[in-house]
Every structure is written in C-alpha cells, then in structure tokens.
Amino acid sequence: MILLNFITKILKITTYMNAEISRKFTSGFWALLFVCAVPMMAAPLAAQDAKPMTIEADDLLEWNQTDGLYIAKGNAVVVQEDATIKGDLLVATYDPDSEDKTVETVTATGNMSFKDNDITASGAKLIYSVKDEDYQVDGPKAIVTGARGTITASKSIVLDTLDDKRQHMIATGNAVYNDANGRRMAGDLINAFFDAEGAMETVEAEGNVNVRTNTGSTASGDAGVYDAVSERATITGNAINTDGGSQMRGARAEVDFKTGNSRILSDGTGGRVTGVLVSN
C-alpha cells in the first residue's frame, strides 16, 4: 500500500512536470515564432491574399494585438508588392477584432520615403491606405514625383482614388506642379485630376496662381485651370502676362503651352486691357 501511494505520487509529479515543460515549450515556441514571423509579417498578414507584406527594422519590431498595431523603429522598411515605405518609425494598423488581421494603413515618420511603379514621394510624414492605395504626404517639404512631372507643397499632398478609379490629388501650401517638359503651374492650392489610366486631365490652382511655359513666358492671377488635352491654361482675376520685359494686364489670360503663345482679354464689362511692350 505504501509502495502504491509512492508510485501514485511519482506519477502525479511526473504528469505535472510534463505539463509544465509542455506549457513552457509551447510558450517559448510561439514566442520564437512571433520573433521570426514579425520581421517578415508572414503569419499575421498571410490573409492579404496576393499582397503579402514584409517589415524589418534595426531597433525594434512590436506586435500590439490589443490595439491592432505593428510598430517598427530604426531604418524601418515595409514592402508590399511594388510599394516600398521607409522611415525612422513605421506603424501599421489593423482591426484587432478581425480574423484575418489585414493591415489597413501604414504611417511613416522620420526620413520618410515612398516608392512604387508609378511615383516616388518624401516628406515629414506619410499615411498610406493599403486597400485603396491612397496616400497623404505631409510637409513642410512634401514632394511627389511621377513620369509626367513633380508636385511639391509646404503643407500636404493627398491622393484620393475615386470609385471609378479616377484619381484626385490635392496639394496645399505653396503648391507647385512642374511637368516633364519644363512647364510649371503654382498656387496656394492645386487640384490635379487623373483618368482611370493615370493620365492627367486637368489642373486647377487657387491663390497666387502662376504658370510658366517651357519658353519662359509667364502668366499670373487669382485662379487658373490647365487642360492637359488641349495643353492650354486659363488664368482669371487680375491676370498678368509677362514675356521678357513685356507685360500685359487684363481680366483673363490664356496660355497655349504647345506654341508658347498667350493673350489677355477683358471681362466684357467695359474694363480695358493694357500692355507695356519692350523690344529685345
């Protein structure tokens, strides 16, 4: 009987120790798996179908399951298909109550840069929407460059993709658009509109508007619209056209970027157009 009780106690102790070893091993295994998985973001992001995302950093990778955050610090890099986001600090968010843990946004700050097949961007901060592929680049030196030109702003540049796949870009604060042919359009606010294929349709500018052709002539005013198809710009409100030392003033200026020709028109209410012509 004594021997039987002794054997029973031994079995209980052995069972407890095996359970503890199994628990600790399992805990350690998942901890190791987390450490290995987070740098590649494979485990939590696998549900993103054809868009796997990887993340790496010099100093820290953190997975906050309570708040739905992945945090990377120190030369952090996120890569998803053709998109690469870099920054001193990257924070990826997802819905913690969702089953697939699909990343919704990536925010990058500190030495931020963004690159995909279409554009490169840099600034003080980037907020990137993974699903819609929209983004916001904050200044003071926000810049977005694509095949057709470059846009800069002191406050922010925001790209919004509409339901029909057309895109709307808003640049705020000393905004300047320079196209690949040396043409320029500037204003306090610039709205650029693109078709579903990414081709520019129109550019609208407001406040301290200034346009420049590739031949060097300029036109300024309160507001302006550039039509990418006709390659013509119309400037309204205290319009001034300048070419070298010559200058014309009126209610509206029209500029043909293909030929470099321009003209000044009155408002049709009796106001006159004036000009000072200087021979070279």
What profile does the largest beta sheet have? 6 strands, antiparallel, barrel
The name CATH uses for the topology of the largest domain is lipopolysaccharide transport protein A fold
Note the beta-strand portion.
Answer: over 45%
Spans with pLDDT under 50 lasting ≥5 residues?
A: 1-48
Topology overview:
Layout lengths: L1 H39 L1 H4 L7 E4 L3 E5 L4 E12 L2 E12 L8 E13 L3 E11 L4 E5 L3 E5 L2 E5 L2 E6 L5 E13 L4 E11 L5 E13 L5 E10 L4 E12 L2 E11 L5 E4 L8 E3 L4
Antiparallel strand pairs: 1-3, 2-3, 3-4, 4-5, 5-6, 6-7, 6-8, 7-10, 8-9, 9-11, 10-11, 11-12, 12-13, 13-14, 14-15, 15-16, 16-17, 16-18
Relevant terms:
single chain, alpha+beta, lipopolysaccharide transport protein A fold, 2 domains, 6-stranded antiparallel barrel, 55% strand, elongated, disordered N terminus
Question: Mind explaining what this structure looks like?
Answer:
The protein is of the alpha+beta class and 280 residues long. The chain folds into two domains: 41-138; 140-280, lipopolysaccharide transport protein A fold (Sandwich). Helix content is 15%, strand content 55%. The chain contains two helices and 18 strands. It has helices at residues 2-40, 42-45, and strands spanning 53-56, 60-64, 69-80, 83-94, 103-115, 119-129, 134-138, 142-146, 149-153, 156-161, 167-179, 184-194, 200-212, 218-227, 232-243, 246-256, 262-265, 274-276. A six-stranded antiparallel beta barrel has the order 6-7-10-11-9-8. The longest helix has 39 residues, at 2-40. It starts with a helix and ends with a strand.
